[in-house]
Amino acid sequence: MSFFDDDDDEEDDSLINNGINQRGSSSRTTRENSSLFIDRLRSTVSPHSEEIQIQIQIERERERSKASESIFDESNLSLSNFNENNFENQIQIQNYEKDEEDDDYDEEEEDLNDIKKLNKFWIKERGIPELSNWQGDLIDEIFDKLEQQQKMVNTLNSDPQTSEEEHFKLMLVQTEMERVKYLIRSYVRTRLHKIEKFSHYITVTPNTHHLLSGAELSHAKRYTDLLHTHFEHSVLDSLPEWLRKMDDTYGDGLSMISKPNRNTPVLIYCKRDCGEITLEGGERAALAKGTTHLVKYKLVDRWINLGWAEVL
Amino acid sequence: MALPKHLQNGLTPDELTFLAEEETIDIVPLFSMTRVRLLSGIYGPFQPPSAAKVPLWLALSLKRKRKCRIVPPDWLGIDRLQNLLKEERENAEAFCSLPRRFIEISKVLLDVAPDDLIQPSLLRSLLKDLREVRQAKIRIGLQSEGVMRGSYLQVTNLTPLELTELKPFLVKAMSIMQSLEPRRDEDEEEDVV
């Protein structure tokens, strides 16, 4: 299974999430089947890798050439996949054009590669006041690919036979890897920032839990605990009992638990006609296709989550 | 802090440039190399007289090593920009539709590859004019009655970079207006009582 070969499950998915899940699981099976690094390199070139018995010690030469092929894509297999990919994209573009009247689902999202998708999720995460879904499968997928690239780079870099041209390509590969790593870091940090800011709210609101990954959720809980223990030890314990609460609500409805302010304005670009929204003053605003608006998050969150409106 | 304060208001111009560098652009390579497979796709082959489509960051990286010539996007030409500028000046009510990341892309191209552009200094001044005309319109727009009153603003055809400049101010203004609104209502009620 070639690692950029996601076109076969792309066609039948109606939603991106679906597609991500499928691809995530397929990469996981690959991981289980081939624990050895060589197997994995091989598996990027040939689909029957498991059948070949390998002995690491005598395979140095072939390992090198495999690694080289799989990064540099000189094999026919990858070439034909690439062409199919192009063809697929054309089909999808045509579908998208047809899709103008048929508003059921978004085909346009599907021809984006993983990196473009991550870009989108990163922009969205930065733009909106509350947490959005954790893109675990996408991140896993990208991590897998990064790991694979890293191993190939290591193999080829330590090999004296690597040609000048290959070194140059390796440099490009590494540049891209750094860009992707930066993107992942920034994405995770943005989420971490929101999680720490709203840790108490997240802990006491079970219906936000599905938005977080396991690690994020346990971090939110531990962070809240630590913070509360610290407050108690440093100040609260020496206060009278009735002042010690940390989840009180004031008379005017203001709670001590800070939660995302859904009134924050967000910038959205409407990718399709989102109808009309009613503003506070009773005025109405039309969210026509191709227009950009600065509007309260709570009024448009459905369109954002459906992918009809894009956060800028 | 997981996210430094200056990043909390939304994307910064640097980050927008980073995003713009993911857009594809045509290059004419000055060296030959077979295909290269990256995470985002397969690029090449690079064979001198024929053009190749690559992400902007790759083009810039090759350009810095003097290994390619960048083919500027079709909107980055004197005629096109003069037309756009004229259109932008004549249309006082709305903004012209421009490529989403035109400021970022034109900036990096002018910085890194001025020798691949025709009359870069003229381009630079045209782009500057275009940007100033738009900025002036934004300023006039903000002064007009009622813009700051509500919590909604239509900003069609402004590019993300221009919106980034505006957003912190608008968000702040809107939140101040919001915090003033209910209290005013209460005052009125008290007055009535």
From TrEMBL, chain A:
<feature type="compositionally biased region" description="Polar residues">
    <location>
        <begin position="15"/>
        <end position="33"/>
    </location>
</feature>
<keyword id="KW-0539">Nucleus</keyword>
<dbReference type="InterPro" id="IPR036224">
    <property type="entry name" value="GINS_bundle-like_dom_sf"/>
</dbReference>
<dbReference type="InterPro" id="IPR038749">
    <property type="entry name" value="Sld5_GINS_A"/>
</dbReference>
<dbReference type="InterPro" id="IPR008591">
    <property type="entry name" value="GINS_Sld5"/>
</dbReference>
<dbReference type="GO" id="GO:0000811">
    <property type="term" value="C:GINS complex"/>
</dbReference>
<feature type="compositionally biased region" description="Acidic residues">
    <location>
        <begin position="1"/>
        <end position="14"/>
    </location>
</feature>
<comment type="similarity">
    <text>Belongs to the GINS4/SLD5 family.</text>
</comment>
<dbReference type="InterPro" id="IPR021151">
    <property type="entry name" value="GINS_A"/>
</dbReference>
<dbReference type="GO" id="GO:0000727">
    <property type="term" value="P:double-strand break repair via break-induced replication"/>
</dbReference>
<feature type="domain" description="GINS subunit">
    <location>
        <begin position="150"/>
        <end position="231"/>
    </location>
</feature>
<feature type="coiled-coil region">
    <location>
        <begin position="98"/>
        <end position="159"/>
    </location>
</feature>
<feature type="region of interest" description="Disordered">
    <location>
        <begin position="1"/>
        <end position="33"/>
    </location>
</feature>
<dbReference type="Pfam" id="PF05916">
    <property type="entry name" value="Sld5"/>
</dbReference>
<dbReference type="GO" id="GO:0006261">
    <property type="term" value="P:DNA-templated DNA replication"/>
</dbReference>
<keyword id="KW-0235">DNA replication</keyword>
<dbReference type="InterPro" id="IPR031633">
    <property type="entry name" value="SLD5_C"/>
</dbReference>
<protein>
    <recommendedName>
        <fullName>DNA replication complex GINS protein SLD5</fullName>
    </recommendedName>
</protein>
<keyword id="KW-0175">Coiled coil</keyword>
Automatic annotation (TrEMBL), chain B:
<dbReference type="GO" id="GO:0000727">
    <property type="term" value="P:double-strand break repair via break-induced replication"/>
</dbReference>
<dbReference type="GO" id="GO:0007059">
    <property type="term" value="P:chromosome segregation"/>
</dbReference>
<keyword id="KW-0235">DNA replication</keyword>
<dbReference type="GO" id="GO:0000811">
    <property type="term" value="C:GINS complex"/>
</dbReference>
<dbReference type="Pfam" id="PF25005">
    <property type="entry name" value="PSF2_N"/>
</dbReference>
<dbReference type="GO" id="GO:0006260">
    <property type="term" value="P:DNA replication"/>
</dbReference>
<dbReference type="Pfam" id="PF05916">
    <property type="entry name" value="Sld5"/>
</dbReference>
<dbReference type="InterPro" id="IPR021151">
    <property type="entry name" value="GINS_A"/>
</dbReference>
<keyword id="KW-0539">Nucleus</keyword>
<dbReference type="InterPro" id="IPR056784">
    <property type="entry name" value="PSF2_N"/>
</dbReference>
<dbReference type="InterPro" id="IPR007257">
    <property type="entry name" value="GINS_Psf2"/>
</dbReference>
<comment type="similarity">
    <text>Belongs to the GINS2/PSF2 family.</text>
</comment>
<protein>
    <recommendedName>
        <fullName>DNA replication complex GINS protein PSF2</fullName>
    </recommendedName>
</protein>
<dbReference type="InterPro" id="IPR036224">
    <property type="entry name" value="GINS_bundle-like_dom_sf"/>
</dbReference>
<feature type="domain" description="DNA replication complex GINS protein PSF2 N-terminal">
    <location>
        <begin position="12"/>
        <end position="71"/>
    </location>
</feature>
<feature type="domain" description="GINS subunit">
    <location>
        <begin position="75"/>
        <end position="180"/>
    </location>
</feature>
<keyword id="KW-0159">Chromosome partition</keyword>
<comment type="subunit">
    <text>Component of the GINS complex.</text>
</comment>
